Protein 1
Amino acid sequence: MSSKRKKRWPRGFYSDGTSYRMKTANGRFRRLGSNEARALRKFHQVRRLENGGDAVGALASARMTLRTVAERWLEAQQADGVRDADRDFGRFKNHVDPLIGSKRIGDIEARDLMLMIRELKRQKKANGSPRHADGSIVNILGVCSSVFELAILEGAIEHNPVKHIPSRKRPKKRGKGGIPYRHHEAVALMTDLRIPADRRILNTLQALTGMRIGEACGRRWRDYDRETPGLGAIHVWSQYDDQPLKTGRASHEKERFVPVHPVLAKALAQWRLGGFTEV
C-alpha cells in the first residue's frame, strides 16, 4: 500500500488516499481515521502526549474511570480550540456520568452502553413524553465515542466499545422530511401585509437564500454586495451578534457567498428605502 505525505502536513502524518495515519515515537504506525480534520486533531494530541507538554498530563490507564478520561478529553478539546467542547461535555456530565461515569474505562463494554441507551430511552418528562429523542441519544453516544478514541490514542484501551454496539440496537436520527411550506404559503409569508414588515423581510431572506434563522438575523448591509457580477451576493460569515457559524470549526469557519434572487433584491431595496429606517 502506497503512502504519501503532503508538504503542508506535519512530519509523521501520512495518507494512503482513503485514510490517515501517523508514525509514533516508537516507530509504529497508528491509523487516525478517514476524516482529515479529525485525524490532524488526533495527531497533535498524540504528539503533545509524547512530548510531555499536554495539558491533560500523563497517559491514561485502563484503571481510570470514564469520568476522569472525559475530563482529560475536555481539556484536550479545549486545547485544540474545538468550539462545542463545553456543550459536548455537558451531554456527558448530564446523561452519561450518572449512569456509567464511575466505571473503569477498561471494564466498559458495548453491553454497558446498550444498558445506558435503554435507561435513557426509559426516562420520561413530567408530562410522560420521552426525555430524550433518538437524535439526542445519538449525540450522547458520539461524545462517548470521542472519549474512548482519546483513551485508545493514549494506550489505555484497544477498542472503542461504541463501535461494537449492533446497528439494530443503535438509535438513529430521523430525517426532518416533508415540505414545510407550499408555494402559496411561502409567498404569503413574504408578502402578506398582515405580517409586520421586519418579519416579512426576514422570511424572504430565509426563503430565498437558505440561511438559518441565526444567519439571517446576523446579516448587515455591509454583507450585501450589489456589484457582484450577475446577481448580487450576501456574505454569510457569522450568526447573530457575530457568533461563529453553526457549521464552522475552530479556525476554518465555513463562510460563504449566497446569490441574491431578483425578488430578494427588490425586497431589500424597498426595505432599505422604507421599513428599515422606521424600525
Protein 2
Amino acid sequence: MRLTEKFHIESREQAQRRDFVGLAHGDVALLRDLLPFMEEHVDEVVEQFYAHLLKHSEARAFFKDEGTLSRVKSSQREYLLDLFRGRYEEDYFENRLRIGVTHERIGLVPKWYIGSNSKFLCLMVPLLAQKYRLRSGKLTRCVLALTKIMNLDQQLVIDTYIGSLLEKLNERQRLLEELLSQIKHAADVLASSAGEILAATIQVVSGAAQTAAAVKDTAATVEEVKQTAQVSSQKAKQVFDSAQKASQVSQAGRKSVEDATRGMHRIQEQMESIAGSIVR
C-alpha cells in the first residue's frame, strides 16, 4: 500500500493542500527556474546546515559514523533539489511521507525537522537575495514560492508522525484489552481455587471427625486399631493431595494476575513515551 493511500492523502487531498498554501502555476514556474542556480549552491547549503546541526549533541547522536553522515548529506541534497524540480504530484507526496515515516522510526522528533526547515530557509534566502539584489519584486515572489512548498512539506511529514503514533496507540490498546481478558481469566481461576480449598478444608474436618469416632468405637483388639489407623492415614493422604492441588491452582491464578499486572505497567510506560513524543 502506498503511503498516500495509507494516510488518506490521495489526488484530491493533494490538490486541496496545494491550493490551501497558495502554490499556483506561477510559483511552480519560479521554483523550476531556480533549479540550475540551486544545483550550483546546494552542496554549500548542505555543508553549512550540517556544520550547524552537529553542534547539538542530541542531533549529533543520529550520525554514528562518517559513512552515515555522508549518506544523509547525499539524501539531503536530493531533498532540497526536489523543492525546485516543479513536480509536486503523487510521487512527490509519496516521497515526503516516506521521509516522515523514516524520521518517526529512528526517533527523530518533529522539533528537529521543523527547526531544520527553518535553518534551510535561512541559508537559501540570502543566496536568492544575492541573485536578485536588483530585482526586489522577483526576490519576494521566489521567497514566497519557496516558503509555500516548504510549508507543504512540513504538513506531510507531521502527518506521518501523527499517523504512526496513532497506530502505536491502537496497538497498545489492543494489548491492554488482551491483558484485561487475562486478568478476568485469572480471577476466575482464583475463584475456582477458593472453592477447592473450601472443599479440602471440609474434607479435613470430616476426616478428623471420622477418625475420632473410629478411635472411640474401636474394639480393644490390636488388629482393629491397626485397621482404623490405616483408614485414617489414607484419608489424611487424600486430604493432603486435595489441599496441594488447590494450592497449585491458586498459585497459577496468582501468577496469571501478576503477569497481567506487569504487562499493564509496560503498556502504561509505552503510552507515556508516545504521549511524550507528541508533546515534543
Protein 3
Amino acid sequence: MASYMCTFPTYHLEELENSIEICKELEKLINKEVMYLYQRKIVLLTGRGGMGKTHLLCDIAKQWITSRIPAFLFFGEQFGVNNASEEILKRLGLEQISFDEFLSFFDEIAEGTQCYVPICVDALNETTQNDYWNSQLLSLISAVEKYKNIKLIVSCRSIYLQEVLDEDIVSRMAIVEQKGFEHVEIEAMRQFGEYYGIYLNFDYLLHQEYKNPLYLKMLCEVAQTQKNLHAEAEDLMKLMKDFFEMKDKKISKEICISVREHIVRQILDIVANSMLKQSI
C-alpha cells in the first residue's frame, strides 16, 4: 500500500473528539425547558389573571390550524354537566364515536404530519363545579397517554389551582407559569404604543404591572381618550376607575342612556354579588 494512503492511528479518535465538542456546543444552544415540554404529553399552564394564558392557547390552536394540522380548544365554562370526554365529543358533533376512536383517528393524522395534535382546555377554574376536574382530568390524562401524538394542555389561574386540582393530579403534569411580558417589557411597550397610537412613558419601566398584557391593554385604551395620547402609570385602582368610566361613556352612548346611570358599575355590582353568593 502506498504511504500516502495510510492514516495515523489516532485519526479516528480525533474525529470522535471533534464530534463530541460539536455535540456539547449544540447542547448549549438547545433550550432544555422547551425540549422537556415537547416531550411531555400533559401540560398545565398557570399564571395570574391577565398574563396571557388564554391568548397563548388560542395562538397554539391558530398556528396549528393555519399549518393544516388539527388542534382543539375548549373552555372551562363549557364543562360541568357531562363527563369531560363526552362533552368534548358533543361539542364536536361526534357523539356517535367513542373518545378512544376520536383520539386514535387524530393520532394517525398526527403521525403523518410528524407533529402532535393539541387538545387544549382553557381556564379550568371557570367550571362551575370546583371538584369537577379532580374526577374528570384523570380520565382524560389516562386516555391521552395511550397515544404518542396527542398532547393535552390545560390552564388554570394560579390562585384557584389548589381549589380546582389535587396535588397528586398536578404532579402528573409538566407545569408552565405564564409570566406575560417578563424580560421583554420594553419591546411590549413599544409594540403596544405603536398599535394604539399612544405614548408610553418608559420612565415607569420598573412598574411591575407592565409585564401584564391586560394591564397594558387597559392603560393604552385609557390613553387613547386623553388629548395628549399620553399613558401614565400611577396605580392599578386609578387605572381601573378610569377604564370603567371610559367604558361607561362608550356603552351609554351606544344604548342611548344617560352616563349618570353608571351602567357599567351597576353590571359589575350584579356580577360581584352573584360571584359572592356562589363563592366563586
